[in-house]
Amino acid sequence: MTLEQLQSDGYGQLPENATKMQQLQHELGQEFMKVLDNSQIGKILENYGFTADNIIKFQAVLDLHKIQQTNDAFSDQEMRSALENIPGAGLTLLSCCWVTSPIVRCVPC
Question: Measuring CA to CA, which residue among 16, 45, 15, 22 is closest to residue 94?
Fold first, then answer.
């Protein structure tokens, strides 16, 4: 299951065979969306005249470079191994764009 599939499902149910990385993405995604959905971001943007969709993008990025430099970043060896094998400096765990219709909320970009 890809991050895009998780996001399009609205962070619904994970399959039983989900990896720890997928579980992490799923749980963070659910919490992130709850926080944003219960925020006043829509009102703030409206107060400043922003009415267009997708003008703000929220992301949570895991700093892989920092993980590789820090021996005590993880107590879970499975997660450490999975993250050490991912190329690049960062892993986007979730991202969403703010929209005002049909409802005001953050949705997958």
Answer: 22
